[in-house]
Amino acid sequence: MSLPRIAIDAMGGDVGVRVMIEGAALARRRHERFQFLLVGDEARIVAALENHPNLRAASEVLHAPDVISGEDKPSQALRRAKTTSMGMAVDAVKQGAAGAAVSAGNTGALMAISKLALRTLPGIDRPALAALLPTLGANDLVMLDLGANTECDARNLVQFAIMGAAYSRIVTGLEAPRVRLLNIGTEEIKGTDALRVAANELKAASAELAMSFENFIEADKINRGEVDVVVTDGFSGNIALKAVEGTARFVADLLRRSFASSLRSKIGFLISRPATELLKHHLDPNNHNGAVFLGLNGVVVKSHGSANALGVANAVAVAARLLEENLTQRIATDLTRVGADNLRPTGRTAAKSRAAE
Amino acid sequence: MSLPRIAIDAMGGDVGVRVMIEGAALARRRHERFQFLLVGDEARIVAALENHPNLRAASEVLHAPDVISGEDKPSQALRRAKTTSMGMAVDAVKQGAAGAAVSAGNTGALMAISKLALRTLPGIDRPALAALLPTLGANDLVMLDLGANTECDARNLVQFAIMGAAYSRIVTGLEAPRVRLLNIGTEEIKGTDALRVAANELKAASAELAMSFENFIEADKINRGEVDVVVTDGFSGNIALKAVEGTARFVADLLRRSFASSLRSKIGFLISRPATELLKHHLDPNNHNGAVFLGLNGVVVKSHGSANALGVANAVAVAARLLEENLTQRIATDLTRVGADNLRPTGRTAAKSRAAE
């Protein structure tokens, strides 16, 4: 049996059809067994394919007359799902015409469309957006939720932990990934009620869970290589992720300025270029592109709106890997094992208690 | 009239009396007009002062028999306020024996003790912890709250904005600092109810406020030099601050590794050392040490628990500057002008709405 196709929303993102198609072509070279369904304005896709006969040979083009813009609200996007490239790419997964969808479009719209079309797995109340982040250790870490759910209760956080661990096992090969809840301290009294309840639930269920759970981690420790899965609500996760991205760029900018500050430093920079190129490669967000909505009946990957062709190719590679490794089935199995459906519903992060007072 | 004294909790922090005293001595050299009240174990303070005759000449020692530990809960700390170095340093501010207190101890305990002893300014419901962060621009930015209040409502956020702007005017010299609320997107529908209400309140009051307010900023943009004050709840602020600190260290570690990866890179590193030293200096948290509790009847500065003597000296310098510039009086004046006491009380951040759905 050939592997299922990957549907590409060729219109999404700030960068346009050519970058999406070039990215898909790069991915095709790495994953020769995969076929592609390219969804969007047919004329523009066909034109872009002229430079990529290798991709063209492995692709079908599906014309979509409309596009979701960055300004569309999720509710507006939902109404136009059937005629837009994003909606039709996700629908292809629902219909079985593709095994996964990749889009660089509006995150809120992609979440809403995916949730409505694909529905959540049994035992999952809400999907979560998960991404891989670089660490000082041997493996990348999985962080979720990164913005799909502004508000989360303890039950959501427990489900995120189970889904994140399943993803991490695929990425790291570990039997029991190290899972932590993101908090503002590691003491048990710190943080919100939802965090404390989720920590207790995960500790109580740890015998059935294929993870090593140990309460909390603070945001300055996440990339030391001491944790494989960082679980948080979508508001805090989005803040943390963007703070990490912004600071990496900030430090790189400072470094550039420092190297330009004297002739001696400029010469040193030229000599040590392999080192700074290595760092640049390590920090380039394109090398970590491809966030996945976990918890759906199907694989949906979000590519960053400003990713280049290499970034798009990496997002497609994430989709290909999750298909090959049966992520959806593995999460479903884990959920059954722990009986996640029986987890007690509990207070929202809303009900934050002031632990510092 | 001589300037008021600065009370130093000589026992707080992971590093002990010697570092606190050495830091105070460094600060004394920079601020010759200031006097010090050194609070803690008298024998150890006197021993540490032997190497610092310059500080000894400007100091009085106040013996405190007890110490707040890092594990003490705020409630436990409050009960022992009268006999601990932290409690007695803050009490010195209350009694007028000092104008400001500096401690490297337990943040939650320092917040609880300071709030009870000094009370909040009229129009302020809760104090907020504010710190300066480096940017690519000409000035540092003020960020608050950094963890004093896990949960915040719109009214708290508005008060934080007013207090942060007052602090920023002292730091930047700007008449109308650029103030933004930290959010997961810049569109008006993004984030929590509390954020949206606070944004509307600040827009409505902008004629009376000495600030330039423009809605939201995302965490990856805070250090670009485009904003002077970043306002957020204590949970998100703590996550953002620690993510920034952790990532700066992460990138520095990667850079060190890259430079060590080949002989050529090592040589390049040696040649470009002035550049990397410049970067190291810029990123050293000791150079940005000293977070202040804004909104109290008095100045209380938190030094990082692991700060070195230079870091402690910087925290003391923050206290000295805020005394010289009459921060407390300026915040009180701003609050009167905007009539902050009349701001409508509104939904907690708890009542987060899922904007992405």
From TrEMBL, chains A, B:
It comes from the Bacteria. It comes from Novosphingobium piscinae. Pathway: Lipid metabolism; phospholipid metabolism. InterPro entries: FA_synthesis, Phospholipid_synth_PlsX-like. PANTHER family: FATTY ACID/PHOSPHOLIPID SYNTHESIS PROTEIN PLSX (PTHR30100), PHOSPHATE ACYLTRANSFERASE (PTHR30100:SF1). Its EC number is 2.3.1.274. One of its GO terms (molecular function) is phosphate:acyl-[acyl carrier protein] acyltransferase activity. It catalyses: a fatty acyl-[ACP] + phosphate = an acyl phosphate + holo-[ACP]. This is Phosphate acyltransferase. The keyword Lipid biosynthesis applies. GO terms for biological process: fatty acid biosynthetic process; phospholipid biosynthetic process. Catalyzes the reversible formation of acyl-phosphate (acyl-PO(4)) from acyl-[acyl-carrier-protein] (acyl-ACP). This enzyme utilizes acyl-ACP as fatty acyl donor, but not acyl-CoA.
